[in-house]
Amino acid sequence: DVRYVLEDRQGTLWVATAAGPDAFDRRTGRVIRHYRSPNPPETPLDRILEDRSVTLWFSGTRTGGIASLDRETGVFTRYVYFDDTSGAPRMRGCSAKLEDSYGMLWLATRPDGVVKFDHARKMFTRYSKELGNPASLSSSDALSLIEDREGGIWVGTNDGGINRFPSGPSPFMI
Fold first, then answer.
1. Each residue of 124-152: pLDDT tens digit?
2. Does the predicted TM-score (pTM) go above 0.70?
3. What is the Cβ-side half-sphere exposure of residue 30, based on CA atoms within 13 angstroms?
């Protein structure tokens, strides 16, 4: 069950599967099935992103967070986002990932809206549809992300059109 494929800057092909990450080194022909490591990312996986510091980020379908891979040690570090009130995971079903020009990770999720992760501070911020708040996302069913030239983050949703999060501390604009 292949869910996402990424070729990293080193030429390794990473495959997100229901059983975990697989890696294929095209230079050597070496295949690592279901990459084993202490503290592996939750499965099934749905997306992989390589950031500008060459860190690989993995997200799972049913979990409340993401995992980064230290390629030198082969160790994953998990970052989980839980609801402060219920203790339940607040980020499931990642449909898109983006690293913005400031180094923040943005994750479009279904059905939990958009989650921004500040790796340096290890802090999650969630944006979702809030009834009665016209400055919130138009839908929490987020599908796609892109950054424009001004640093704004555009969010495509399943049933609410598109939204733009301007660069800076402003709310979403529809």
1. 888 999 999 988 999 999 999 999 999 99
2. yes
3. 7
